Amino acid sequence: MQNRVEMDMDERKFAFLTRMGDSALILSQQLCKLCGKGPALEEDMALANVALDLIGQARLWLQHAAEVQGAGGDEDRLAFLRDVHQFRNFLLVEQPNGSYADTLMRQFFFDTWHYFRLQALSQSTDARIAEIAQKSIKEVTYHVRRTGDLIVRLGDGTEESHARVQAAANELWMYTGEMFEADQVELGEAAACGVAPASGLRQPWLDHVAQVFAEATLTMPSPDAWMQKGGLQGRHTEQLGYILAEMQFLQRAYPAAQW
Amino acid sequence: MNAAAELDIGPDQVWGWLAEVSDPEIPVISVVDLGIVREVTVGAAGPASCTVTITPTYSGCPAMEVIAQDIDSALRRHGLLQVTIETRLAPAWTTDWMSAAGREKLKGYGIAPPAQQVVDISGILRRSRAEPAVACPNCGSARTRLVSQFGSTACKALYRCDDCLEPFDYFKCH
Question: Can you give the residue ranges of the MIP18 family-like domain (chain B) (predicted)?
């Protein structure tokens, strides 16, 4: 792998954009499964609202990715006709909804990363990336505030809720490392956009998580713990196959079906 | 067709027609009140042609496609033959672009209008205790509380009034 020929610029941008789009898309799909099944009406609506924001953002990123790819495709082709190994989402977002503590902790970890990521990309010298980020961060600000509040409420809640969110944090922690991975695609594209690579988001992310965990009386797992990786290179957990099977069923069974 | 082509249509007239196109989810306000129409140009592709540039409120808002269709059919009804709807992302839509009349109409409809002029909402990672009070659109009381940051649509939060005890929607700052 070390000797691989350098990616050309479009290939690199495409990879970068699908990373942004795929995490939003897969997380949105996961949240959609909870529509009508939230633990309370307000939470049900919040989940659907967040899912809607994420699908809108995924669409913007993947639309741009399809244009960069230049193969005459569009965001729908990318969403519905790629297979597992072609997806570039974080392993974190494909983890199962589990209990509500799992759903919320996954969201809190992602929202916090997403917020700092979009804040950085809002300053991008690539105008298109900057405008998608500037649009998205307004929505994500509400996401990150909600999940921070809820983690505090549950962590500092009952014995049961505390135990559950703590277990969820411990379980999901190993999937947080790759959000800050700075490989060739990340370093190259961040430099091209004039922004700091994702590795630079790690400290602000840790600081915010530590602050919320302290208020929630939760113990933050060690930042130096061993981390799972692979999502950004298309090596996924088995979960993604099941998610795509459901998400892509219609287009696979009835190719080119139109809404 | 010829009659339409002979119409002397200016941008002001088109803005006037757009002010009659209502938001599909909040029918009391128009797309102009909402601040999503950013630009209108007339005549670039022929005498009865028009380009309307709109900006999405929320990136996943399902009403945007309906709004584009409604604008298209409204302008055609008024005699325009070629209507192009363009979408512009930047600068991102903000509730500051909502008209004063639009805010009043929201209130009359039972939705509390955005409480503050937005400078930059994205600076706040945690909900602040110093957020401005949202007045109840039913009884006017300032003793209200947030129930959920996310209401019946992406653009609204759910509140409850501590005086009249009615729940209500709040069009949140964006």
Answer: 12-77
